[in-house]
Specification:
Gly_transporter (chains A, B, C), homotrimer
Chain lengths: 212, 212, 212
């Protein structure tokens, strides 16, 4: 997003690096991978959601292929994870915080990009969510895990709320740097509260009673 | 398809809801999911095939994001499955019938849309098949099942036959509401005969002899 | 690529058939599939990487749907694998050689296509790699295997090197039939050396020491 304000762009770059780092570490834990696998899965985690959004709104080639910092940060995050995976495993908390920054920023930028591309309110919110969780979903599928976003934790829900705040403020004509940061902040706070208190989304009734 | 005749559109909406319901129920049985997972997989089952087709023919944003009834019916089907999964498990036969309606309608509309977009006969038939089975394939992959369409039952074959009837009648200049309904009917009947008699597509020779 | 020189086109067709054959055989070994599954996975292996590239650069409908030899060769390879899977299992070496021809040609054509579409050097090299390994990655995921390209052997690395030679010679203004064949040859030789000597890409440090 070359037109995004500097602070939002800085958050977007931070999120890209954090997603690549965290995505590659998760992949290393879940499957036996070589350097190609670790770096690829880091890059897919960081860039996959935005690429899915860009393909779906017809903005191809995707931003990730047109602005070099995204590829560089995603590849760099994957390489750092490859080299330092043992050491980084001890940094769970700061990595979780940076990952929440990425989740929040991707949801906000994804939703505003989709709305600018002419999508209606509901699809734009959904594409904000896709931008935020799409990369991790592809990664989990490639290492044969049911995507964690479908199973546990509050991960998609804060992203959808952040995307909704974005879309509502744009439609209300009050979107700008501050509204964007507020939307990022809302998603970030809900996500961190979810991590801290171990909040879970509801499961189907059948699973509530027994141990299905 | 805002230009589709009302009866075909009604079948398309019915199929969308049925695919979401059935897709979400299948997902609930295969993996431990929360509400985000159940509704997401219902929506992916209902909309994924059409989105794949639209991306492949360059018709983006996909129809599913441009005409609200599709998102509403898909999300609604997923929510109903979430709330009533225990009760719906007893309704296997009517859900199978509605699912076959969706399979048939998606194959016919998918093939005609692809042909209108300028594709040749064979790719248009294949994209009819992709429209019909693509969403369920993504769902199965996400819950770590080998897609059932690749393994058993007559599911892709009736869809391809329905798509072929569609394409042939369009090329013969006799396509219209009645030809479309005939193509839907052909696919539907073959699918239901397959369900009723437990018909299977051929397996590779090695598997015929032993229990590989 | 109707504009590719005849020799490169012949290699591309050979690779398409070989990928379909090898992809379908791999799928038969990994999962119990019917004829729909075997042929579909052969076609996805052969065409999936090129389709991903075309979608990402906005060249839709993809080449695979616009030039009939690709669909015919991919479908034919899948059908041959279905009929002769037991017998073909004995032909591992020639199939590996033909597969390396496909890997090399797909990487070179993929990178040059991406560069012509206006992508920069690094994304064009990556898309050459995606063209070469994308189809096999989708196939592995559908039959519930962690994609082998992420885990073992030199497979993506020779493809990326072939793509890099392609991009560098195009940018240097010396690309043509001979440069393309040289790039194909570089990838092919590295791949075959890797197969012959059992070369592996590096794994993360944690895996070097123990048996994680």
């Amino acid at each position: 997003m070359s037109t995004a304000p500097p602070l939002l762009l800085a958050l977007d770059f931070t999120g890209t690096f954090a997603f690549a780092l965290n995505g590659a570490l998760t992949a290393v834990r879940a499957a036996r991978l070589d350097i190609v696998g670790v770096v690829t899965l880091g890059m897919i985690t960081a860039l996959g959601g935005g690429i899915m959004r860009d393909v779906l709104i017809g903005a191809v080639p995707p931003t990730a292929f047109q602005q070099w910092p995204y590829l560089a940060l995603a590849g760099g995050g994957g390489l750092v994870a490859f080299a330092l995976s043992q050491w980084l495993d001890r940094l769970e908390t700061p990595i979780n915080v940076l990952d929440a920054v990425g989740l929040s920023t991707f949801a906000v930028i994804g939703a505003s990009t989709a709305l600018e591309a002419g999508l209606d309110v509901t699809p734009a919110i959904l594409l904000g969510g896709v931008t935020a969780v799409g990369g991790g979903t592809i990664r989990d599928t490639l290492v044969r895990r049911v995507p964690s976003v479908l199973q546990s934790d509050l991960y998609a829900i804060p992203a959808l709320i952040g995307a909704a705040v974005t879309v509502v403020t744009i439609r209300a004509g009050i979107y700008g740097v501050w509204a964007a940061l507020a939307a990022v902040g809302v998603c970030f706070v809900i996500r961190m509260l979810g991590v801290h208190f171990g909040l879970q989304a509801p499961v189907p009734p059948a699973h509530r009673d027994g141990n299905a």
